[in-house]
Design brief:
Elements: E1 3-13, E2 20-31, E3 35-39, H1 46-54, E4 62-70, E5 73-74, H2 80-86, E6 91-94, H3 98-101, H4 108-120, H5 124-137, H6 154-166, E7 172-176, H7 184-201, E8 204-209, H8 212-218, E9 221-226, E10 229-235, H9 236-241, H10 246-253, H11 293-297, E11 303-306, E12 309-311, E13 351-364, E14 369-384, E15 389-393, H12 400-407, E16 415-420, E17 423-424, H13 430-436, E18 440-443, H14 447-450, H15 457-468, H16 474-487, H17 504-516, E19 522-526, H18 534-551, E20 554-558, H19 562-568, E21 571-576, E22 579-585, H20 586-591, H21 596-604
Parallel strand pairs: 3-8, 3-9, 6-7, 7-8, 15-20, 15-21, 18-19, 19-20
Antiparallel strand pairs: 1-2, 1-4, 4-5, 9-10, 10-12, 11-12, 13-14, 13-16, 16-17, 21-22
């Protein structure tokens, strides 16, 4: 077969009593001009599979078994010198974070030039002309050849990395979460570009992602991976119409959508088992709602249940049913979903913002005189009532986070005013402002960087109480910390552990508990689920909905995930270039937007378009 054929790939980290096996018997094939999506939660072995194919495994890891044939040549049998000619040439990889993949002290031309010199023997003026053509292929002007990575936006850096990978004219391109940190419009542009390039060049494309909507847009075939194994593989349309493995169905069931408002999202309890786990039976058994005795004692073999549809499961589900069934086990999509209680409403808003502006001066010359101003936030007005969620959406750089920081007075506004429970925040100073901050808290995008790694979780949760509520004694603070840890779904022994001992979703729960410790009225959530798997995202969204009903919280939810907006928010404000361009009730705005910019954001969201070329906002 022309293309890439992977057969029974196994990766081990030898050592100790048991070897770590992050990839165990993975098989798939990618033909010319074909896109295969590799789906699954973090820790399933997706990226380790890609690194094994590239022969870039971390120190201590080795390929213990299997084959990876590119046009019949086994990559795993090549010497390192021979592999250098293949790596970046016939087989190339786009990594998740472009800033860490690009050399910060080399220009774009120099970095693309390295690949051209290695794989096409081009140097000097010929290399520069070829680099300019590659930039043109990824929709960047030739002027960017002399730019450094820090002078480019996230989307532009990703395009430069794609151009570098195209320099070797690859037969197969691996894209490992290429759009995770990008907003919807840039994501649409990058995905459209990849789709267009693989069709024009006849490349095979291995797309690694945990976003089911992205896989639906891009893939011809989808392989679902769990705990080092591919548990289901099928053509895209067949898999999305009739998923058969309980894990695949669970992934679909936890997705937030507009039509699931008022329901609890289905949950996928537990975590992906570690790479050193021993499995006497099915690897998904501990989390499977359909588990029965055979699952715990016998590992299921992969079998073809329909033409091109492979399944690793003991169940015999009927084709076309919405979920696998087993006598007495119930439905995977979970009839436990119950309507959420109607949130309370009061006449006066918890937060009201009028004509808020944040302008940053541009200073030039020896005396650093002000030559102009950057209007990061330019006359924004909004309000949020108790029990309501206002979603603030827009592209990166439009001013969403700056607005949140200005509301909290972490940045001093240039103009305008904010009121919390009817009290103006602008005149507050010193102790009065510090105590008012107990009523408005923020949960940041990356919980690991916002939690002190040297403090135990109990100390982290109690820290805000000690600073903002000095009237509470140590015993009261400890009791409240225990109650909050229980409310966010963590065991009480978590209080004595450190942040690094938890998963991303658990750390986000800790950050939420810390914010709730001072009993705020307003909670600002800055992209709290953007880096989480869909299963963990569902747990966090359910938690936020429960806490809002229980405490009557007002949420300002900053995000670019429109599926989350449709599920959680009651109102939406669309922000562009520092201004609110459209606001309204969620269902109305998402189904009948009035502004062209809002329509473009909605059209750019994954899961709406099969072909993305040309989608997005210019500039």
């Amino acid at each position: 077969m022309k293309g890439l054929v992977v057969d029974n790939l196994r990766v081990e980290f030898p050592g100790g009593e048991r070897s770590l096996v992050p990839v165990d018997g993975v098989s798939f094939a990618i033909g010319a001009n074909e896109c295969v999506a590799l789906l699954g939660e973090s820790g399933c072995g997706k990226s380790m599979t890609a690194l094994a194919l590239m022969r870039l495994l971390p120190e201590g890891a080795r390929v213990a078994a299997g084959h990876a044939r590119l046009d019949g040549q086994d990559l795993l049998d090549l010497s390192e010198q021979a592999m250098r000619a293949v790596r970046g040439g016939r087989l190339a990889m786009i990594f998740q974070e472009p800033m860490t993949s690009l050399n910060p002290v080399m220009t774009v031309a120099e970095q693309i030039g390295e690949a051209l010199a290695m794989h096409r023997r081009l140097t000097g003026a010929a290399a520069r002309r070829a680099a300019a053509e590659l930039l043109k292929a990824v929709d960047l002007p030739p002027e960017r050849l002399d730019a450094y990575p820090f002078q480019l936006s996230g989307g532009q850096r990703q395009r430069v990395l794609i151009a570098m990978m195209l320099a070797g004219e690859p037969e197969v391109l691996i894209a490992d979460e290429p759009t995770t940190a990008l907003d919807v419009t840039v994501q649409a542009q990058i995905l459209g570009l990849l789709d267009q390039l693989r069709r024009q060049r006849g490349m095979g494309l291995l797309l690694i992602t945990h976003d089911l909507d992205v896989a639906r847009d891009m893939a011809d075939r989808v392989a679902v991976m769990y705990a080092g194994e591919i548990v289901e593989s099928a053509p895209r349309d067949r898999l999305y119409a009739s998923p058969r493995h309980p894990y695949t169905r669970k992934l679909f069931a936890v997705l937030p959508r507009l039509d699931r408002r008022g329901e609890r999202l289905d949950s996928l309890p537990g975590r992906v088992p570690p790479a050193d786990a021993v499995f006497p039976g099915c690897r998904f058994a501990e989390r499977c709602p359909n588990v029965f005795a055979r699952c715990r004692t016998e590992a299921p073999a992969a079998r073809e249940v329909a033409p091109g549809h492979w399944l690793r499961c003991h169940l015999e589900p009927e084709e076309g049913r919405p979920a696998a069934a087993n006598p007495g086990s119930g439905d995977v999509v979970a009839s436990v979903l119950t309507p959420a209680p109607t949130p309370p409403s009061v006449e006066s808003p918890v937060l009201e913002v009028r004509d808020l502006a944040v302008h940053f001066p541009i200073r030039k010359g020896l005396l650093r005189r002000v030559a102009g101003r950057i209007k990061a936030v330019d006359g924004v007005s909004l309000s949020i009532r108790s029990g309501e969620t206002l979603a603030l959406v827009g592209e990166s750089g439009c001013g969403k986070t700056t607005l949140a920081r200005a509301v909290l007075r972490l940045i001093e506004p240039t103009a305008g005013e904010s009121w919390l429970d009817g009290e103006a925040l602008g005149p507050l100073r010193g102790e009065a402002l510090r105590r008012k901050r107990a009523k408005m808290q923020i949960v940041f995008q990356d919980p690991f960087s916002s939690l002190n790694p040297r403090l135990r979780v109990g100390e982290i949760v109690e820290e805000g109480m000690a600073a903002l509520l000095p009237e509470l004694d140590a015993r009261t603070r400890r009791d409240r910390a225990r109650s909050l840890i229980d409310q966010v779904g963590l065991p009480l022994d978590a209080l004595d552990r450190y942040p690094h001992e938890f998963s991303g979703g658990q750390r986000q729960r800790i950050a939420i508990a810390r914010a709730l410790a001072v009993e705020p009225r307003l909670l600002i959530l800055d992209e709290p689920t953007s880096a989480l798997d869909v299963s963990v995202q569902a747990q966090i969204l359910n938690l936020l909905a429960d806490l809002q009903v229980r405490h009557g919280l007002a949420y300002l939810f900053i995000t670019h995930n429109l599926s989350v907006v449709g599920y959680l928010a009651s109102q939406v404000a669309v922000m562009r270039a520092g201004r609110i361009v459209e606001t309204g009730e969620t269902r109305t705005l998402l189904t009948n937007p009035r502004e062209d910019y809002t329509r473009t954001l909605l059209e750019s969201a994954p899961g709406r378009n099969r072909t993305r070329a040309g989608t997005g906002v210019a500039g």
